[in-house]
Amino acid sequence: MKRSAFATALFLGLAACGGSDSAEMDTPAESAAPAAAPAETEAMSGEMTMPEWFTMDGSNVTLDITAGATDKGNYWNYNGYQFGEVTITVPVGANVTVNFSNNDPNMAHSLGISAGFETAPAMVDPVAVFEGAITANPTSMTEATLPGQSTSISFVASEAGEYSMVCYIAGHAVSGMWLHFNVSAEGEAGVSGAM
Ligand SMILES: [Cu+2]
Q1: What is the pTM of this model?
Q2: What pLDDT, in 10s, does the model give residues 152-179?
Q3: Where are the alpha helices (DSSP H) in the chain?
């Protein structure tokens, strides 16, 4: 509940500041938002952008996510990002498709949407918060998405909140293989953070 209220305040703050030029499906909260928002809130969230790997067509969001896109962190990254350094935001109710590819030459990886955290636990339960929001055999080093393989998952981002996109292979999330994944009640969409 606290987290949810915080998220709402954050989004209202962003709307009030007009600090984002990202696509927004609808911003009914804008007129109701208080004029003032703490400056640090905006700085913490950063600008939201829509990189080429994030596309939106109506309520359909497509994310092209590559494990081991770079060799950063021994290839244990998503599109070159680790440790929640970027936040992917989709509108509540979006039909999300994740096209997941594994470019790590050495290691299997997986991808799913789990409960939000700021520090990854040693083990993340391989249970998605949205039905279908997890790749096959997510904890298996031999049967998850292997080097050179790709797969797709689709799910409805049915509940607003702050979640994590995470790899479930033992040790990967705690080593940095996770990003923030937010579902916005205000219809915000894009990517923020250290882009
Ligand atoms: Cu992994």
Answers
A1: 0.77
A2: 999 999 999 999 999 999 999 999 999 9
A3: 2-17, 39-45
